[in-house]
Amino acid sequence: MSANLDLTDVSNGLGIMLAVDGTRPLPELTASVNAVCDEVERRDGRTVVVLQFDGGHVQGPGWPGEVTIRDVNRWERAVRRLERLPAANVAVASGPCGGPALDLLLAADFRIGTPDLVLVLPVNDGHFWPGMSVYRLVQNLGVARARQIVIWGMDISVTKASELGLVDQVSEDLDHAVQTAVVLMGRVSDKELAVRRQLLLEASAAEYDDALGVHLAACDRELRRLTVAAES
């Protein structure tokens, strides 16, 4: 499926922005995310991905609607692909943020919200949708706090989301916040960022001895980089 992708350059081409319409069918959303990943992998140099969520285009709590398990699998793989890109990704959300927007926000490196942002949790007939948002909530918050959210399924205000660390910055001036974030994140947006992101994601589950080898490999690459930088 080809994605009708409307990408906008940000900060003189340092970043690319995708406006995510959460009301679109899941296969179309999956294609859009994959197309963004294709564009990042095609580019040379550092790139920051900006995902913009408009509260006026959001699915309600009944996510994901009428889909097949194959659709869900493809969506989750696309989000995971985005999460593993050698590029920083920034999520920008206003108003209600639920469904696919919430999935993508939880996968982002940096999250910006407006004062009216509300995280709308995926609840159907009182049951929290058991997608990978549950996994990412545990990764972000730990089991105890994530359990409270999953069991009760209550929407999360921007104030609470900020306290929990689900939102990194609250701003009324999204344009300025995005420009600043893209410039700052652009300085570290490369393959080594992807490595550090992966180390963070795996730290809570990996045994020490299993993690040690991966960390040492990352340290070795960093030492080599510093040596080259010192000699140049």
From TrEMBL:
PANTHER family attached to this UniProt entry: ENOYL-COA HYDRATASE (PTHR42964), POLYKETIDE BIOSYNTHESIS ENOYL-COA HYDRATASE PKSH-RELATED (PTHR42964:SF1)
Protein name per the record: (3,5-dihydroxycyclohex-3-enyl)acetyl-CoA dehydratase subunit B
InterPro entries referenced in this protein's UniProt entry, alphabetically: ClpP/crotonase-like_dom_sf, Enoyl-CoA_hydra/iso, Enoyl-CoA_hydratase-like, Enoyl-CoA_Hydratase/Isomerase
Pfam families given in the database record: ECH_1
Protein family according to the UniProt entry: Belongs to the enoyl-CoA hydratase/isomerase family.
Organism this protein belongs to: Actinoplanes siamensis
One Gene Ontology MF term: catalytic activity
